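Q: Hi! First time asking for a complex rather than a single chain. Here are the components, and I think there are two in total. Is that enough to go on?
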Amino acid sequence: MPSAIHTDKLTKRYSRVTALDCVNLDVTEGSVYALVGQNGAGKTTAIKLLMNLIPASAGHAEILGAPSTHLRGKSYTEIGYVSENQEIPEWMKVGYLLDYLGEFYPTWDPALEQSLIKQFELPLDRKIKALSRGMKMKLALACALAFHPRLIILDEPFGGLDPLVREQLIEGLLERATESTIFISSHDLAEIESFASHVGYLESGKLLFSEDMASLSIRFREVEIIRHSDSPLPTTLPDTWLQTKSSGAVVRFVDSRFDELRATAEIARVFGPVRDTQFRPLTLRSIFLAMARKSEEA
Amino acid sequence: MDQILHIFKKDIRRHWPEILLSLALLALYTNRALHPWTNSLDSYPFSRSFYFFVVTGEYVAPVLVIFWLFLVIRVVQGESLIGDRQWWTTKPYVWWQLLLAKLLFVLVFICVPLFHVQLFLLHYFKFPILRNLLQLFSMQLSLLLILICFCVLLASLTRNLVQVLLVVGVTALVAIAAAIWSRGNYSRSSVMEATPSVVGYLSELLIWGGLAGAVAWQFARRRRWITIGVLIVLISFVAAINTAFTSNKVAERRYTPVDRSAAPLDVSVKPIEPSNVNKDFSRETSPEVQLTMPVTVAGVPAGSVIQLNAVNIHAESPDKSTWSRGWLYESLDFWPEDQEKTLTYSIDRKEYQKIRSTLIQLQVDLAISEYQVVDARTLPIVSQRFSDQALGSCRLSSLDNSRLHCLYPVRIPEYVIRFDPQRSGCIDNDSEEQGQADTVSYAWKSPDGMDFPDPELSPISDFDPWFQPVSLTSSRNETSKRRAVRLCPGTFLTLSRPVLRRQLRIRLDPFNARLEDLAATPLRFGLR
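A: Yes, that's all I need. Here is the structure of the assembled complex.
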């Protein structure tokens, strides 16, 4: 599959601070890619670099097969971009903004526009400055979807929105997921989990992993062991075990390289024979928290 | 093209209140420009009912220009080029079409209405339109250049009006600091200096090209700090080449040296009388001391006027040490009827203090321009407004008898007007002191050599030819016989046109003097 987004050692430095550090990313066309990470991890910086809003300090990125630094003017007819920080012209009315933008896109679909207006319940005759935050995000998404973009890039689209609006946004996105590649950064892991096909985890500017959701959910497991005794935990534990905790004879941890045979062998090596072992799948949120806490401990 | 019109229509929709206000201000300005006579200060006593209009009308033009600057900045910042949060930056805007849309707005709502007003004003004052069309276009181009190159650039480098005001404020502070600095170094500014014309053209090309290029680059790439950096480098480079090539040898290059016998006038320094006043200026604050030298003048050919452009004094003391400050600008006219004039020259105060009481030999050089007065003809003054092809539309000043008020299309013309009391025809009822002068007097304007009109709003130039009486004695003489010229209906003036004939350097006979005998006592203002 060709890549919709490809980066090679993409780096952004602000003076002495490295916001993004040698990020290698590959987003295949047709995928729904979620870029997750804590605040300040570099998600927004990565997206701004991809959108050619800021220049990279090193490395390069390609968007839809062209260098991101060439992204300007007509190139944006294939990319829908929504950001929570974007400043929409507040003096315009909703209807006028849609009419105005429609002229810029040769593929603008009036029928789809009407459908999105209806779906998102957009008030056409209201000024944008009078809209709520959720309504503004719906409007921004409608503007980004109505021209059948090949690539949709969303920067924290769900931040601060109520569940109903989030649901509407996700529904709107999912309906277009078949015709577009979606690249989304978010803290809202629960929602992302429901539709992301791939996920990347960014930590202090570094991409710690980038893989498809299926392999990720297979790779991470919560492990619960019931030992025969409540002896203290050994001082050295495998690196792949995250957040190891014990309570009496019970030991819990997250295995970040789960393979049942290998995990069983390691448990036997560390604890000897155990009374019971259970492997439970993790939600994306739990994986994210485990990774975040690991880095905090480090 | 579609995008240009689309953005243009959006800007109209957004800025229609400002557009209406701009047109209203332009209408107010036009109304004021239709009454240039009431704009003159001398009409106050006769039109008190218009007092409010006149006073407030003074501010219409600056308010209009400031509002236009505000409008241009608002329109450009509608799609702000600063920051990475602007919604339009991720939309398929083509940068040059965006730039052209903004320029189209400036053209349609500022330049075109102003152009119509200018055409209307020319028509109203009965000046030919076709003959002045090229000049009007030049005025428009000047205005457009300033609006684009300064205003659009400023708007494209700032995020909002607050930032614009901040930049303007900082620039004003720098300008004030520079003015204060140059005041302390005043002597430098009076020196006759110039850069070679090729450096001047190159500098203009670099500055205007650089500013236009910076606007285009900023629209294309939105890299503020790179743009600012390039501009700083460019301005520094232009300043450096101007500094490197600026020379004070202008007089030597431009003015041909001639012997006194071949000079078009004979100037001699009058004997210097010893001064009884204490001329110790060690406690003065001014960096300079002004020297004055009364001279006798003779031999200015009829039909000529000699303009003094610069003076150079070379001093040599008894111990053979020499001193000269070089060529300094001076402006003085010599007419055929002139007999005496006063030359001035500034000297550094510290230098003056060192040698003020020493008898030194002074060598005076003059750089002059000789103008031939051509196309002379009689111009009768009537009580009402009158028109003349060379002078425009004129009338007598109602307050100042020695002044005319004239209007001329686009630029003030060059002229020489001669007043001869024998052809005055005025009945003199006033006292002798205020009455008719018994000598001829001139009002004139020399050709300025400019070929590009200033970026003014009105195509009607308002100017006042003023007749200065010819002095029969030096102005140093307290009992000067200067008399005011009095014009009245029935006066016949002689109107002609000055043409530059040649530029010369002449050297006066050396003379001995003490500087304190030449020094003018500084004027003091204050309460006793």
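A: The interface with chain B takes residues 48, 51, 53-55, 72-77, 79, 81, 83, 85-89, 91, 96, 100-101, 103-105, 140 of chain A (CB under 8 Å). Let me know if you'd like any chain examined more closely.
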